[in-house]
Amino acid sequence: MKIIKILSILLLSFIVMPSCEESEDVVTGVEGGLVELLNPSINYVVGNSGPYNCSVKVYQGKVKTTKVEIYKSFTSVGKTSEEVLFKTIDLNKPETSIESFSFSFNDLIAGLTLDGSPLPDKDGDYQIGDYWKFRFVSLNSLGNVVQQSKVTKVTVATRFAGRYKFIEGEYWRIGVLSSAGDYWFDEYLFESIDAKTYKMNGLSAWLDNELYFQIEEDGTITYPAEWNGVSQTLNGQPLITCELNLSDLTHVNCGSSNYVIKDDVNGKDRLIMSFGYYTAGSGPREFYQVMEKIVD
Hints:
By secondary structure, the chain is mostly beta strands. It folds into two domains: 138 residues, Sandwich (Immunoglobulin-like); 132 residues, Lipocalin, CATH 2.40.128.
């Protein structure tokens, strides 16, 4: 009798389903209502009002996705605006599809207020790191509302922030060539910190490292010895640069490196970088890399 009661309770729990659901991080594609974000991070470059593009993959199954609603909000220095409906994608497609939409600076600021005032209408008035957030909500053919678990952030950035692919490079360990490029991964993220400072996430094969560098007005790349009052290190050892430690960086093209090649046609800017770190009692580790900005 107890077993029958337990089975009855379990059966009832499957029959009584909530009308509002939350999507899983792992998209299986077996149920309508699931939306995969293809652009979870977009840089809004000051001075380029758009248009920018955002794409999502809308999954269809026995249960169909009939609509995707996109809500937007804005955050600056810990303060967040109200959230408003930004766009609606109506769907009448039996198969999984890629859906895209474009937006401009004026689209981003329209209808939003912060501290009771409309958002500034000049992009130069925003701080690096301010961001708009797109939240995605879908409706499926069962009438259920599915809150997607991930969001897209459109972050105020500068020209050279973004995803970069590795083109070529060398790693020298105590004067011996240890890698001619095979230590690097295909892609790295470079983030804007302020008007000229960037953070490189990952050092060759060591993805837990980060390096702050600066791009000057003339296109040269420099590396501050400290950031936020803390000395820069790589793999826990002191940073060395062509400017300050030339005798320790004899293999990585210091005389023809640390500059930017701008691509004003396709946006595929290249960063030519040389730097390293010094291990006491051992010697220098030298890095040379060419990174190219990925344009979606």
